[in-house]
Amino acid sequence: MILEKGKAALLLGMQYGDEGKGKLIDVLAKEADLVCRVQGGNNAGHTIWVNGEKLTTHLLPSGVLHEKTKLVIGSGVVIDPFVLATEIKNMISKGVLLSPQRFFVDSRAAVILPYHRNLDVSREKLRAQNANQIGTTGKGVGPAYASRAFRDAPRMAEFCVWDNFLQWLDRHPHLAEDLDESAISSLRDVSAFLAPYIKDCAMVANNALASGSKVLLEGAQGTMLDVGFGTYPYVTSSSLVSGSCAGGLGIPPWAIKRVLGVIKAYSTRVGNGPYPGEIEGTFAETLRQKGHEFGSTTGRPRSVGWLDLVALRYHVRINGLTDLAIMKSDVLCGVDPVAVVTAYKDKRTGEEMRGFPVTIQAWESIEPVLEFVPGWSSLTTSKGKLSKEFSNFVKKVENFVGVSAIYLSTGPDRNAGIWR
Ligand code: GDP
Ligand code: IMO
Ligand code: MG
Fold first, then answer.
1. Same structural domain, 132 and 208
2. CA 57 – CA 38 distance, rounded (Å)
């Protein structure tokens, strides 16, 4: 496993989100002392299946079901207090221990208010008029990060001391525009409910590391949605790359010893933007149904595509991946052949592109080169070894990107997977 005493390990999505991070965090959390969300907000939806029961987390770290593991939401996360309070209450009603001794929320995390949610929706409507809608989740995540950069978003420290929050609204009256009396009253209840959870989580994490705890950082979204290195402007609003994740918690970057990248054996994307290797037509629909590819947060159908090894190789370097996990290969059982994207070709000249596209114009000028490999009818043989075809697929991925796959997920359940 990737967790070491006194060190941190980071798990990151390596595609367009929804790679199966939640499942793997749940698997790893059993051995972790502290699991921490470090960026994003409730635009994330992380699914865990245990004994046929499905659980989706949006803000709570996906280690929530392992009660000996402590949980942190770091300062880099933006928090919709209503969503967080509802998630906590739901979890408690399921009998999960979620006390302020187990779960901590950083006092510096910025707060998503109704103003931010409304702005998210209205900006999307405006973009739609100019045919450049991003397809955001509409949760107010982008406007909340922008508001923090403008230095007008309250943080949990301000929000959870009610008089301070009222003063904040007085000083930033635009934030109160969408708040009627009943909204204010609901916010007051939520503020009081969340107050006991507020801590300096940078210190919680650093103290945990110093005392020899195993710390696991749970990335949200996926590196192709990174605001810096993704398919800008069709990206989320936060920095997702490994270099930023230490800052989203407040630990030194050198404390992160392993960076585990998670991919599907194919790919999916929700929202708009470039998507090399996208599959269309009836086969896409078959794959979508078979993989249950519908957004965990918005329920939108996910576009599906082949695994893009060019993008993966690029992001292996940006993120310094030490390990890889391949999820959902079971969904491709019976698909023959299976394709992977191994080059980007210039549509006009037919020549292989050097470098990685940056502008939308550059993305539009490329055509993915597909390489076909024999498909598999099962992942393992009757003796429990990897089937020849699946093993060759895994080797192909590993050789192309230069990182070993240490985990192969074989189904949604927490027990369905192979450690190598
Ligand atoms: P996340 O955002 O990266 O946590 O991923 P999501 O939870 O949004 O989406 C991943 C989906 O794939 C969920 O429905 C998981 O239950 C499911 N899943 C995860 N691993 C596997 C796997 O190996 N096989 C199958 N069939 N489903 C998986
Ligand atoms: P998890 O953690 C998939 C996408 C949205 C949209 C773009 C911007 O579950 O992998 P935003 O609401 O962030 O401003 O939307 O980013 N997006 C995700 N897609 N999984 C996610 O999270 C996502 N979080 C944001 O669909 O294209
Ligand atoms: Mg998801």
1. no
2. 14
Provide the pLDDT for residue 178: 82
Total domains in the fold of the chain: 2
For residue 21, the ligand closest to its alpha carbon is 1
Please indicate, yes or no, if residue 58 is contained in any of the structural domains. Answer: yes
- Tell me if 27 sits within 8 A of 414, measured CB to CB: yes
Q: Tell me if 270 CB under 6 Å of ligand 2.
A: yes
Q: Which atom of ligand 2 is nearest to the CA of 18?
A: 10
Residue 119 token pair: 């702005």
Provide the strand spans (E) within 3-76.
8-13, 34-37, 46-50, 53-57, 70-73
Q: Which ligand 2 atom sits closest to the C-alpha of 120?
A: 14
Range of the structural domain that residue 259 is part of: 8-108+198-419
Tokens of 406: 């240490």
Is 3 within a domain? Answer: no
* CA 145 to ligand 2 center in whole angstroms: 14
pLDDT tens, 329-368?
999 999 999 999 999 999 999 999 989 999 999 999 999 9
Q: Within a domain: residue 271? A: yes
pLDDT tens per residue across span 297-332: 889 999 999 999 999 999 999 999 999 999 999 999
The type of residue at 317 is R
Any catalytic annotation for residue 163? no
- Residue range 387-409, pLDDT digits in tens: 999 999 999 999 999 999 999 99
Told to judge if 18 belongs to the known catalytic residues of this protein, a careful annotator would answer yes
Tens digit of each residue's pLDDT (9 = 90 or more) over 7-41: 999 999 999 999 999 999 999 999 999 999 999 99
Q: What's 172's domain CATH number? A: 1.10.300.10
Residue 217, domain CATH: 3.40.440.10
303 and 350, same structural domain?
yes
Q: Which of 193, 228, 248 is the last residue of a domain?
A: 193
Cα(202)–Cα(157) distance, rounded to whole angstroms?
A: 14
* pLDDT tens profile 217-246: 999 999 999 999 999 999 999 999 999 999
Q: Is the CB of 274 under 6 A from ligand 2?
A: no
